[in-house]
Amino acid sequence: MHAPAHPQPIDDYAMIGDRSTAALIGRDGSIDWLCLPHFDSHACFAALLGDRRNGHWRIGPTGEATSTRRYLPGSLVLETTHETATGTVRVTDAMPTSDGRADVVRIIEGVRGEVELEHELVVRFGYGAVPPWFRRVQDRGQEVLVAIAGPDRLVLWADPLPRAAGHSHRSTLAVREGDRFVFELCWQHSWRPIAEPIGEATLVRTTVEESAEWLAELDYEGPYLEAVQTSVLVLRALTDAETGGILAAPTTSLPEDPGGIRNWDYRFTWLRDASLTVDAMLAVRLGGRVRLWRDWLLRAIAGDPQDMRIMYRRDGGRDLLERELPHLPGYGGARPVRIGNGAADQRQHDVLGQVMLTLQRLREVGLEDDQDSWHMQRALLDELASHWQEPDHGLWEMRGAPQHFTHSRAMMWAAFDCGVRAVEAGHDGDPHRWIELRDALREEVLTRGFDESTGSFRQHYGTSEVDASLLQLATIGIVEPDDPRFLGTIARIERELLVDGLPLRYRTTGVDGLAGDEHPFVLCGFWLVIAYAQCGRLDDARALMDRLVALRNDVGLLAEEIDPATGRHWGNFPQAFSHLGLVLAAAEIAAAEERTAALSARR
Question: Angle between the 350-364 and 406-424 helix axes, to the nearest 10 degrees?
């Protein structure tokens, strides 16, 4: 019987989700990662970070097969076609939205000839550590398979049901042309009555039609349209439908380097990432869909402005205690496997700047602040004014000593600038202190943040190293795109940070306090595209954009980092940073093309 190898390449996975959680499905038909019922819940399928014994659910051919995949148009419903020597079978996977439960529905259809499928179910709650109590029960005249461990229960409706075989449940299924089977796995709290199967009609209505209707509001006709559509669907899938929290990724501990230790839990909402996601939505005129995020923000950071965190749980909770799971060997042996994130306690001055920039853009498109929202912004700016001279850990969450990072200092300038502009537009407040600090920060960034000897901005004031975050300086507005200092920074990044044409975040020379190395960071590639477009290098912008879009996997997903030599994806997957970067870069190229066309017309 076919036994899938672990780990599969990260880019061999596709994601399905119900906007409360998400599953990763390998090309071989194995669901190797699923946390239930929420993104940040314990995983019941954790083979991604171990092996099959840590939990997975596979429906795939028993022998050799050629497998092709696609998302159904306008959705993240996954359709996989397995072609074998004896026939062809199609499997459709989806997670329909529902209240108080979470469902994975798998529809199997015989297309040609006959194909033997393996059905294997291994459930391990507690991130692959807790075996459940399995039993077969009669429910509404149908035999179902039930797995219970404490508060968690999974119910499998399938015909035929798999049989117990050691620590798993297995069966084989001969699928002939015209056959159709529906398998459904449902999570509920264990003390509730067993729910009814959700049914295919609901699946189609709530999963395909709902997302296609949402996508129809996309107001973008620029270049890379298909890639933009897929990326906004990914960002939507990573936005918790109930709370509005926007997840950085649905996974934890996928390594940035094979066998390395740079393995982090990204199943949380970073204020920075969420703000940039909203910027991406605004760039393609989906602004009507972002009020839920603003309301989440107000709830999450309510209270003492001194206690604003850089990240929160999807519901706004603050318990992100980082710990390790020694029972899991890690993806490809990359240890430790971590849950929680210790960076939540860091001071990162850039975060408020990004939040303020996004709230300013929301005001510009007509989503005005209410009294609570503006009162919160005033309090946060006043708090920043009392700490603005302190060093921080920076955008990249360095685990070394705090520094005066140039990007962080520029983002503080942006925070105060947005506050001043809001008061000038009619909001109440005395902006004199903010004006003073804004001007002081700009002067500081343009002097201490600039290295005369290299002709570029520097990563932080105590080094001559360069950093890809400096590509944001023109977007922030602290310099113009044609400023020689900004152009010199682009040139230096091209000389020192590009690996086979793709940029690293920075050179890992010890400033981040970690051992090991990493690959080019996908978001930084899109930032370089944006910088090229802003400074008039449109051909370079298109060429790099073409390269990055081509590096997506077969269903259009991107991880955090990519090895340009092999095309392999690394880091947590799919990564909101990467997909929001794609949307922003495409919109910037579209804007640059419009500027070029307008200039040509005037001539």
Answer: 30
